Amino acid sequence: xxxFYAELRRDSPVAQVDPGGLWAVSRYxxxxxxxxxxxxxxxxxxxxxxxxxxxGRPNPMSASIIFMDDPKQHGRxxxxxxxxxxxxxxxxxxxxxxxxAEELTTRVLSRRQVDFVEDFALPLPASVIGTLMGLEPExxxxxxxxxxxxxAVSVTQPGDTELLAQYRRTVDEMEQYLSxxxxxxxxxxxxxxxxxxxxxxxxxxxxxxxxxxxxxxLLLVAGLETTVHLLGNSxxxxxxxxDVLARLRADRALIPxxxxxxxxxxxxxxxxxxxxxxxxxxxxxxxxxxSVLALxxxxxxxxERYCADGDRFSLDRKGPHNMAFGHGMHFCLGAALARMEGRxxxxxxxxxxxxxxRRSEALEWNLSMTVRGVRALPLEVRP
Length: 383
Ligand code: HEM
Description:
By secondary structure, this protein is α+β, with helices and mostly antiparallel strands. The protein has helices at 3-11, 28-35, 46-50, 71-82, 87-111, 116-121, 123-133, 140-152, 161-187, 193-199, 209-240, 242-250, 255-265, 297-300, 335-349, and strands at residues 14-18, 22-25, 41-42, 113-115, 272-276, 280-282, 285-287, 292-295, 355-358, 378-382. The longest helix is centred in the middle third of the chain and has 32 residues, at 209-240.
């Protein structure tokens, strides 16, 4: 449970949590209202999390669609990659995801004592995003370190020299690597998203290097970090609820409902940020122009006004709880892909696995204002 969020929802649904101007928004309706109004609540707020002024290096992701408010500019760019995440493309990808899930299941069952993040939750989405983008499999383990470093900058203070130096090294390394990928695809196009983006035209114009780099950073970070946590949280909740695991094994048609409840109960994007472009009010609270809002999706999805007994994990709720993927123009581009990865992973793993047991009480959580999940998940996987 998140008792502090329950307190905020009850007493102070729009609360100033930092004198510098950060406000926490904790009720479902208020979060939804802000997400629906990009003119007043700008995605520029995410900049505070993505590239705080003391980071010392612009984050190439800032040039990407997730930061854009102008529906025309956003729609034109998003339109370029929509198709890669549509039903036809996903149906083509499914057998590949199943093959990777089978390989990983064999591996975790033969080892039995595993770190579920390193041995399953990470390699599956890394291989999916790597395949989509046409990247080298040897580098898949590095992707996670990269996206961890990129999202960790959101919790830094100006004096955090080590974390900030690591962030800058990672931005440089990713930029260099992705520039090489772009140069290679320019010379020899392949069947991948980088080649597709290189050949795309908007009103006759090719994408600028900045737009292209922004896209690739966004896809690598947004496509990986979040899905790793969806799979990791799923395994953790199955270890905590053996009755649920038994029900899913008996009836695999329940898997989608289980995933929706995991997304509601422990959304990988715990909060997102918005900036007030004008003086305004939310839930009766005056917000001066320039205020930054942390929209606490994790709190909204447990809001008693929205769902009864929200701190209880239950397979019998009626979903889907789409807000875990955002709402409105920035609704997650990869939602259907992430749901498919989760479904296929469990369809493959569960018939072969009778129980998951936690091997240590202490869990190490990642560092981030926006994305939340465990770094490692020591589990025993029983056949
Ligand atoms: C946007 C969540 C997986 C790509 C978002 C947003 C959320 C989200 C909440 C909206 C952020 C905002 O409005 O501030 C998730 C979760 C995932 C997941 C919980 C997994 C369980 C993926 C995957 C991809 C992806 C697999 C791609 C490979 C994107 C992109 C955007 C986005 C490109 C920006 C869309 C736009 O600005 O129009 N995601 N995501 N996500 N997500 Fe995901």
